[in-house]
Amino acid sequence: MLDLRPVGYVIGLLVASLGLTMLGPLAADLLAGNGHWFVFFQSAVITVLTGGLMALACANGVTASLSLRQTFLLTSLVWLTLPVFGAIPFMLGATEASFTIAFFESMSGLTTTGATALSQLETLPDGLKLWRGVLQWLGGVGIVVVAMVFLPELRVGGMQIFRSEGFDTSGKILPRAGQIATRISGIYVALTVCCMLAYTGTGMEGFDAIVHAMTTVSTGGMANYDASFATWGGGVHYVGVVFMILAALPFVRFVQLMAGTARPLFQDRQIRVFLMTIAFAVLLITSWLWGRGGVMTEAAFRDALFNVTSIMTGTGYASANYMVWGTFPVVMFFLLGLIGGCAGSTSCSVKVFRYQLLFAAIKSQIRQIHSPHGVFTPRYEGRPISEDVLNSVMAFLVAFILSLGITAVLLGMTGLDFITSVSGAAAALANIGPGLGLEIGPAGSYANINDTAKWILAIAMFVGRLEIMVVLTILSIKFWRT
Asked: Does residue 251 have a pLDDT over 60?
C-alpha cells in the first residue's frame, strides 16, 4: 500500500511556509495605512496552522527518500494544494472573490501563467498586488526545482537528458532537491534584486518595481495595472526584455557561471536557438510594423522586441495591443507561445530543446530513407540521443497536441467563440497568460468568461505546468495498482 505520510509531511511544510510569506503583504498593507492587513493575518493563521498540523500528523512517516510513486504524487499534489490556500486572501480580501475566481487567480499565479480574472487592478490594496507577485515568484522557484530535480528523475518529456548536468545525482531525491534549491534560490534572489534596481533606475516607483521584478524573473507576467507595461516608457521596456530573457535561460548555466565556468553558457545550442528565434521574430514583426506605418520608428522596434520576448518566454506582459497590428503578427505570437523558453528555466510551453530533438530525429530519419544501409543516430550537443529520450519527447508532444485540442473543444462547449477557445487553451496549457481576441487578448482579461471555462482553464494551467505526462501518469489505473 502506498504510504502517503512522507508526501503529506512535505506538503504540510510547504503550506505552512506559504502562510509565512503572507506576512509580506500584511506589512505592505500596514505601511500603506489601510485596514486590509487583517485579511492577511487571518489567511496566514489559517494556512500556517493547517500546514503545521498536516506536517505534525505525518511526521512519523518521514523517510530519507521517496519512491517513484510518492514522487509523482508529491509533484502533482503540491501544485493543487498550494493554490487552494493561495486563494484565501482573494476570498477574504477587498475583491471578495468567489472560490472559482480566487482559485483561478491563485493557480494562474503559482503556475506563472499570468492570466487574471480580476479587473481594475490599480484599485487593489497594496497587499493583494504584492500577494499576486509573491505567488508568481514562489511559483518560479518551484518550477525550476521541479524541472531540474523531479522531471529528470521521473523521465518526463525528455528531461532525463539533463539528469546529471551541473549537479551531483548520487543522492536521494529530497536531499538533492534541497541542494539544488539552495543554489537556485541565491541566483533567483540576485536576479530579482537586480531587476528591481533596474526598474527603479528607469522610472518605475519602488513598490511597483518590487512586484514587477518578482513577476518578471518568474516569467509570470501579472502586472499592477490593467494597461500592463504600456503604463511605462522605453527604459522600463528594455529592462523587462533583458530580465525576461535571463529568466528563460537554463538556471544550471548560472550555477556553472557562478562556479567560474562560463563556457557552457556560451556553447549551449538551446540558448543560441532560443535567442536566434527571438531575433528572427523581432526582425519580421518590426519590418511588418515599419511597412504598415510607412516610417521606421524606435517605438515600433521596441514594441516588437518587448511583446515577442514576453510571449515566447511565457511572461505575458504587453506594451501594446498587438491585436490591432494585423493578422501576420497575431499568428506569429500564437506560434511563438507554443515554442517557449529553455528547459530548466522559469519559462513555459513546449521548450526549445524538444523541438531540437524532434528535428534531429526527423533529419536522421530522412537520411535513413535516403541511405537505407547507413546507420544514422540523432544527436544533441554532440551526444547520441537515446531511444528512451526520443520516445519520451514524442509522447510529450502528442500529449500536448491532444490536450490542446481537448481543452479547446471543452471551452467551445461552454459557449466561447473559436478564437477565444483555441487561444485560451494554448495560453493556459502553455502557461502564457493572455490569449487572442478582444476578451482575453492583451487588452482584456479572463474576468468575463463563465465559471465553467475558468475551471477548465485552471486545470489546463495545472496540467501544462507539470509537463502533462506527470498528471496523465497519476490518473492511470496502473499507477495505483503497482
From this structure: yes
